[in-house]
Amino acid sequence: MSGDRSTPGPAASIAEPSSVPSGELRTVVFHGTAQIGGAPVASVIVLASVVAVLSFIPFSVALSAGNGFPMAQGVYSLTGWLLGPWAGATASGVGSLIGIFLAPHTAGIPWITVGGAASGALFAGVITRQRTHRRLTGLLAVVIVLEVVIFVRHAVFTNGVRPGVFVAAYLTHLIAIVGFLLPTRRWIGGLIASPDLRRVALGLFLGTWMAASLMMFGESMMGYLILNWPDELFVFFAGIIPLEQAARSGIGAVIGTGVIAGLRSMSLVKPRDARY
Amino acid sequence: MPVPLVSFRQVSYEYPRSERPALLDVDLDIRAGEIVGLTGATGSGKTTLCLALNGTVPQFFGGRFYGRLLVEGRDTLDHPIHEQAAGVALVLQDPSAQLIAATVEQEIAFALENLRVPRAEIVLRIETALAAVGLSALRARHPHTLSGGQQQRLALAAAFATRPRLMVLDEPTSQLDPRSALGVFALIRELNAQYGIAFLITGHAPEEMAATVQRLVVLAGGRVVADAPPEDVYRDLPLLSRNSIRPPGVTVTFAQLAERGATRLAPPIRLEVGLEQIKHLPAPRPFDPPVATPAQSGVPILSLDRVSHVYADGTRALTDLTLEVHRRDYLAVLGQNGAGKSTLLRHFLHLLQPTEGSVRIDGALLATYSAPELAQRVGYVPQNPDRQLFNATVEAEVGFSLRVLSLPPGERERRIHTVLDSLGLLPLRHRHPFSLSRGDRARVVIAAVLALEPEILVFDEPTTGQDDEGARAILDLTRRLNQEGRTVILVTHHLSLLPGYANRAILLRGGRLVLDASLRTAFHDLEALASTDLQPTHAVALARAADDRLRTFTPEELAGLYGAHPTSQGSTP
Amino acid sequence: MTSPTLHSVGRSTGFVALDFRAKAAIFVAASCLAILWDDVRFTVGLALIVLAGCRAAGISGSYLAFVLRVMSPFFVLLLGTHGFFNQQYVLRLTGQEQLTALIAVPEPWWVVGGMVLSKEGLLYGATAVGKSLTFLLLVPLCVFTTDPNQWVVGLVRLRIPFKFAFLISSTLRFFPLIFDEIQAVRETQRLRGFALETMGPLERVRTYGRIAVPVILSAMHKAQQIEVVLQSRAFSGRSDRTYLHSPELGAAGWITIVLSAAAVVAAVIVELTTGLGRFVTL
Predict the structure, then answer these.
(1) Starting at the edge strand that comes first in sequence, how are the strands of the sheet with B504-509 ordered?
(2) What is the least distance, in Å, from the CA of B27 to any CA of chain A?
(3) CATH architecture of B6-250
(4) Domain boundaries, chain B
(5) Which residue of A has its CA nearest to B386?
(6) How far apart are CA C140 and CA A102, in angstroms?
(7) Model confidence over B189-244: pLDDT tens digits?
(8) B56–C233: do the CB atoms touch at under 8 Å?
(9) What is the ipTM of this complex?
(10) Of B90, B193, B550, C9, which residue is the least packed, with the fewest Cβ within 10 Å?
(11) How far apart are CA B209 and CA B215, in angstroms?
């Protein structure tokens, strides 16, 4: 038997024990551990691994639409809502980086792909009803406006792309940009935090659309600065971008709703900046 | 009296948002060099107690903590968790989720690097640790490529390399095959004897616990309800029954013998003691095993004809395997890891196609069935139920399966209701599957599979990680489904649980069929079992020690042959 | 489908032995040059140098051939779009009033009638191909030749906090686990009768999307376990720890870094002063 403890012998049982603790209530102090943006490092690692894996699952399998995009693009924004903006951006960025390490030929221009993935989660992380990360949100708003200015200046004013064609190509993205700058962002964040799963699904659909649009617009701008594709390709984009965005948003809503419903039912430690 | 290594004083703990304490007024000491076992039903607080030992509870999880827990005289609440790692090493049950480095030696180095051990010392400790666990030849391998047993040994090596005073092992063998589990317990005894490290081991492996621990602590509802030498705890069968703890087979057998007046000795807890004692009992009466039901004739529901399978990398996983499964069979598939069980299962499910030979259902080649057709013939319940849960409610989960069928209006709802009702899940129909216990989640998956009304049900290790009651509940369900007319195929490592359920067993070794017989015959084919490193159950070993001609295979059957009152014999052939 | 694994060169070459920081410098410098240059001789030349570097560093010819084969449709697309359509931009680059026609599609042809493939457009397309190929091949050149353990130390030496360096190597470690998990979920969905090939697009999205749900939930559950493991193995995220593998930069590393930086600076100066590197029509 152990030391001076008073636990009775093996067969003895405690008659109708009280469930009120008799020990002194202690103050629990968390002495700190490695975190990234308020999320445990391990959560960032596993979500980065999920993003890396989903980089290998072509969404075209689901859509049968030929060369599609990897399913990971539907969950970049979800990482932002699950972990918060900084941790989500790290998970998405690192996940997409590992995807590139494993299969470089899938990347296009690697650093644009990685940056895009990270920005998708970063934008999503600030699509929230909470009034947190104000400086980050402001910074992102400035970056978006700068992207619009640079892209328009280079494509329309320098390279002579027709303004109407430019707007038609990026209409979906431009609407999302306006939505991000307006209080729509907080309304969508409210939907995602709602206890009603139908509202959550709607919020995730709109939120994924907004975050993915902002991400894709930035990626397009960077790609354009390097490759300078012609006016005719913008016309092609006008038809394809809304379809792609609908697919991304759909997949984001389906996955996100299932995941958030599950997480709310599981007793896991919630990252500080989680939005669900 | 020397200061104990670990000292719980009135320790209670409540997780955030929890309605009841996970630990309640725990008073417990662990002395240096001791091996202490910790057991109890699922949810009794074992893991929480383990996690408290390095401050993870409450520092990581939050919640309310009462009392005082001192490890080496230091309060676990006053120091960061990573600082406490120098004294207390933790090994968890899932080997794959606790290995974090890209090579075996880097895995061992990780904690040492964090503890700022100088490089030269790290190199030395890696050598010692690898030698201790017998992995020196695999130092450059990626941990993911190791077997489950090797991974758990590596986790032990990584923990041991930090030179802790206490190693806490939370269900270290629950996911291992019997051979690997024996290896891990042998290693624990060796590390304890050689290095004087204290161990706290939780788990549901009574035979191995009995052979290893010096004290056994039983938790119930977060309280310590027993703390004594393992002999005293395992002999207290009412206590074990109340707490869903399976006693060692030898103890159950001798308890039954004592009940019939065949012996006055206290039931042993180690097989070798039992084997010696039973030889000194009077000779048992002869035993006539019930006649096995003859194999059904006609077209088998599932058949494999000379199936071989070679993987793309050249690994030969199945060789010339012929098998017929008839309607209403309850077939147990036995063998160590790597014997070919999973490959065989994947052929039943058409996830793999034979390299040679053919697989048929009702005489038709499996390849001729579409996915929905096959799902209505063969239902599969995986080891990890969580992989099959996609929906936000139990009801939706069951209904999800039915979307592949074109059912008339009302039929879908009727089927959902019937299945949920038959599995006792109706009260949980609106709950999220992930909010349920592991046992209930497994039932949800079974319900989803049953909704398609398949004739064959394949269960892959359904009792892994379950306590005695949970394991019995799932096996009872499989028996009921079998009695209702379904064919059941079950893969398991837990031989002792099978009597009363399976009527037939096949034994695989190296991808070949070693044995295909009634369960009783299989259990008594000691040569075949030995050839696959499987140990006979205690009941079988004791029967053969008592009289080599005896073919009893449950404690009840064996005990019934002693004493004055013969009892009815079991009906499982 | 088996889990993709990190390619690594099968033999030890001088480049393999080079410190990760030196390789990072090459990566950055070559990327900068690819962005800076518009001269087709330079961009394609750079891509060929990187390709030759890959081969010399030990990356298998079959892998490089695979990459070129996979990317060839994209490269053809680049040549075609720039060659046929990108007139305005190329005109601006050349300062010419008209582009040199190489092929003119006859007017009566359906849809494509009247389209002209210009020499300058084609050259700019080749420039874009060179840039893309450089970006693409730099990854295998630097990653496949480096042991993941060296990344961690290398990144820490580059003042990247250890927790981020650890994050990258750990993601690589957990990738196969999650990949196996997703394969298992796909299989179990199929075993419940879901054959994607027989579904309509919307149903397919719903079913396919749900594959990720149990994978992410199980990953989050696993994350909690891993966090407990990390902390119980003294992980604090701090960089002041010891390292089993502790490579030194060495003379070759320093020389590589200095040369990489010098190449970028020189290219910028040369382009600003002489225009060498800007688009030319040949």
Answers:
(1) B378-381, B456-460, B487-491, B330-334, B504-509, B512-518
(2) 6
(3) 3-Layer(aba) Sandwich (3.40)
(4) 6-250, 251-282+537-573, 302-536
(5) A262
(6) 9
(7) 999 999 999 999 998 889 999 999 999 999 999 999 999 999 999 999 999 999 99
(8) no
(9) 0.85
(10) B193
(11) 10
